[in-house]
Amino acid sequence: MASSQIVVTAVAGHSLWPNMEVELNTFGELLDGHIERHLVVGEHSISESLRGSFDLVYPVEPPFPDYRGIRYAFRATRRYLNEYRPDFIFNIAQQIPVGFAVALAGCRKAGVTTILRVAGEPFRQHELEEAWFRRFRKWMVHWKGVEFAGQMADAVLTLGPTLRSQIVESGISPAKVYALPNFFDHRRFQRSSEPEEEMKGELGLEPSRKTVLFVGRVSEMKGADRLLEIVRCVVRESEDIQFCILGDGPLLQEFRQFPSSRVHLAGRVPYTDVPNYYRASDLLIHPSKTEGLPNVVLEAIAARLPVMAAPVGEIQRYVPKTASEPQVYVEYILRGEWEPPAYPNWFDREVLRERYLSFFNNLVSKEP
Q1: For the chain, which terminus, N or C, has the lower number of CB atoms within 10 Å?
Q2: Bigger pLDDT: 350 or 67?
Q3: Under 8 Å CB-to-CB from 124, ≥6 apart: which residues?
């Protein structure tokens, strides 16, 4: 490996969801041969695929007890930076606490550029809480925490122009706030040649019915309360439509009131099986109450699946049909006139690679 390559370090949480491991692998593979890539991660989350995607994987044993991963975040960042001096270090997810730790621990290390990656809407989190103490806690943790970390970091990376504007409006200098999409590989979700009806049957779905898919945590934050109302109305109005719910969460039990022939509860499935559910479906709905740039929407677009989603985060830049009110979803579903969104140009790996390389090179040129 050429010594002239810049070194970029991603700090992940102590445990990884399957989709986060895929995103990390995509990051590593995308920039292979162009930059030296390091990964800091909990020692129990290291897989062979991660070892193959990074030049260095630095394992950290999570401390116990550890409230919401705070101790791990600081331990991981400090221990790594005591041994290595990368050019850049950033959090791959979890702006709180991992991004917070990267910004605060990294700012004391000479020659290391810290990047706070904000993948959601931190300034809206408290609005979704009803109890005043929970609202205040989220305001302090998410709003003030991200605001402070953003001031301390050398750069802030968001997932799009909408989220960038939110960060700038919080008082962080526009000159240090950037926007780049997820590390996403659309090729995993492209349509197969297998007939849709056969795939539905293999997954336990009724082949003759149109399938409306929901993928994600079945919680109020992800709009599961809205989903419940949508399902109730559509099931009552039409015999031609079935729902498939892919995921788990506190509100999943509410959907057991419907016949399994109309609402298929797939639960959590191996991530390698997820593309088949997109390929077997006819429409994805995503009525979430807060988002950044959800992989769920990108995965559906990659599978050429029509999408209707809530107008939060960056979704409106990718999905023409958006709504928050359940009744609007119901009317759209019953109408049955669904068209898939267009591919964004950055689905081309060369385009995405060049955008990230330009981002890092631009930061290099700004260093004193």
Answers
A1: C
A2: 350
A3: 290, 312
